[in-house]
Amino acid sequence: MRPPQVLREGTKKTVFVNFMDLCRIMHRQPDHVMAFLLAELGTSGSLDGQQRLVVKGRFAPKNFEWILRRYISDYVICPGCKSPDTILMKENRLFFLRCEKCGSGRSVAPIKAGFVARVGRRNTGT
Ligand SMILES: [Zn+2]
Fold first, then answer.
1. Translation initiation factor IF2/IF5 domain spans which residues (predicted)?
2. Residue 121 has pLDDT above 60, yes or no
C-alpha cells in the first residue's frame, strides 16, 4: 500500500493527490472510497479536474492513511483468508464482500452518513 500524497490548498482545503491510484490498487470504486473517507473525516469534498480528491478542512497524510487502513480491513481484506483479492458487490442497498481466493462472502457495514448532511441549526418552536 502506497502512502497517500497530500497537499494543502490555501488554508481551508486539503488535496489528496493519488486518491485514484490508491482506489485502483485496492480495486474499489472511487465513489465508495470517497464516501467512506468523507464520512470518517466528517467533511465534504469532491474530485477536481485532475481527478484529485479535494476535501474541506486541513488534514495530515496520517489522517488519510489511518482511514484507508480501516477501509481496507473493513471493505477489502477477506476476513476468512486475509486475501486482498476480493470483490465488493452491491445488491439492493447492501454491500457484499466476496473473496476470489476462498470463495467466502459476507455483507459489510454500510458507510455511516450524517456529518455532511447536517448543515446549520433548525429553528424549533417557532
Ligand atoms: Zn478469502
1. 1-105
2. no
